[in-house]
Amino acid sequence: MERxxxxxxxxxxxxSSIGGFWGGYTIVNHTEIFGNAQTGNLLKxxxxxxxxxxxxxxxxIISFFVYCGxxxxxxxxxxxxxxxxxIVSMICSAAAIAVVGALPFVRNDYIACYPIIFVxxxxxxxxxxxxxxxxxxxxxxxxVRQAAMLTTNFFLNRDRQTLxxxxxxxxxxxxxxxxxxxxxxxxxxxxxxxxWFCYAPLLLTAFMYYLYISxxxxxxxxGSPRN
Length: 227
Prior knowledge:
Layout: H1 2-29, H2 39-50, H3 57-80, H4 85-102, H5 109-126, E1 129-130, E2 133-134, H6 141-157, H7 160-190, H8 199-218
Antiparallel strand pairs: 1-2
Helix pairs in contact: 1-5, 1-7, 1-8, 2-3, 3-5, 4-5, 4-8, 6-7
């Protein structure tokens, strides 16, 4: 069972590298927007309004509804899908990469962000639990909080389980930022076309998911139902 949980965590780390890649890619190549989350974007919209700057308003409003649309999509598909939502998420991510890869021909930085803004919450919802830990694969705030608090609690209590939980969040943060670094380096050489390199962490995630599911099924008693 412990081996299966570790593989589930590896899937989570790989998915986090996808989230990091998206964030790094959109910041470097598309108007310095963090396409994975809405906090900064909504703050920018409000601050721009207070300064009378409406140039960004349309993009921010559309981004908000696109992000909400990704969450709505997840809820609706989950009710009907007969396959894991992790698989659905990876399919959607693959499609988003292809769309963004084609959009440089449009020469519109804003439009190129929308596919990522849409699929980011789908991934967040699909990969939000690993090893009993709740963690985002598309941004870092809660992961930093958890890592810092759990590490502090470990030094206070010397509890092995707390250390393992802290390790999970630190490795999630590391994976996320390695993905961002990969986006940054590839963007130096390929610019907006660096998005195609996002297939590397996506394929790695798919492979690790396959290994995780194979191990999980091998551990099931003969004749038991398979989800």
